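Sample A.
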Amino acid sequence: MMATVKVNGVELLERQLNRMGRPMIRQIVEAGAKAAEKRMAENTEARKHTRNRDMLESIGENEYREFLGGGSVEVYPQGDDRKGVRNATKAYVINYGKGQRPTTKRKKPNKTGDKFITGDESKAEAVVYEAMKAESDRLIAEINNE
């Protein structure tokens, strides 16, 4: 009797991912974060939110957080500008706008933001996904060529 082994694509991918380990998963996540940083900086410049470039130059990733089966990194403007204003707060206000909703006493409309971050979510996700996939493919090819 001869032994046979059948492996489908999902099992093969799962084995490859298991061989990757935490450091490689971190590399994949960080590759996506770099793509997100670049995309956010491009959007910030395209919408001309660069009065003194403090917010633009502060776009970066926060600390890598690891959890069961993966990890995450958030990308947004970090730190404070030269006047002590949080860059993340400035980005939030520019994105969502400021002001109060009209009430019965006040008929002034809400000043809405230009959605330079949230208006680009689907395209940014695609860019991040492609960067992470490219890094994953590179790492899997590296593992298979050992």
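Sample B, a different protein:
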Amino acid sequence: MDYAAFRIGAAKARSRGLLPTVARVAIALAAGIALLAMTLVGLFIVLPLLLLGAAASYFYLRRRMRQMRPAPRRAPDDVIDAEYTVIDHR
């Protein structure tokens, strides 16, 4: 029987040569550089694009809402348009 569970527990001791150590360092360094590159791209490219898109969307929607709102009716120049409140005293 050659199951993976038996192979994991019975793994040989890792070799301590120079080449495996250099390979591990190179892999770790490449992973670190890739993580740093993704972080910098997200911070300096994606985040500003998201902020610009949000601002543009806000101003566009505000303009569209203003266009859809009915214009207030103007009274003729010789008419005073006012609201009155009647207060009843007893």
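Observation for Sample B: The mean pLDDT is 84.
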